[in-house]
Amino acid sequence: MEKWARRYGSRVQFLMVCVDGARVAIEFGRMFDLKAVVNCYIPSRGYMPVGFGQLGCSGFIISDEKGYFVSRKTRAYLQYGELAFDHVEQILEKKCSVVPARHEVLVEEEKKADEDVLSKNWVMPSVGIQTMDEEHELCEGALSLMLLKPNTQTLTKVMEALTEHFQHEEELMKQAGFGRPGEPFSPYANHVKDHERILDIG
Question: Which residue of 33, 83, 107, 185 is 20 to 30 Å from 152, comparing CA positions?
Fold first, then answer.
């Protein structure tokens, strides 16, 4: 989102609204090095939007310069891939008459950023829990092997690694009470939905 916000500059304001308190918002700000994105949080459940909204990779809410909603939910990344971002840009162009900076600017910026997970220089960030970091490395290894040798056996290994990791991660989140498990509109519920989408792709 940070790169996206830089592409649009002052023409579009990107907000990352954390629904799990200030601590998580601050951690996300550090993790994603947010500078062009306004990083904020809702102080309590009473501020939770009613009737619409989503979390994370499930899409974006878009409003115009007057604060009127032009889209209550854009396409989800895990369902549409890069087309989800194209959908946001189409809405911004059609409903708000704004377009991102020229393509050449974006290409130059991406060369500098070196944030591509397929880059040889990319390093998986730590989540601060050793067992999760180790499982992420196992999943990354299985995915890398599948890219080198795409066949049924390596795909099966990826699916096994991801399934085991997702189950463990969801259990840890429940035990810690992270993301308000049991509530329909929660970081936990959205994270589980993202896991399901990823496994459906496999």
Answer: 83
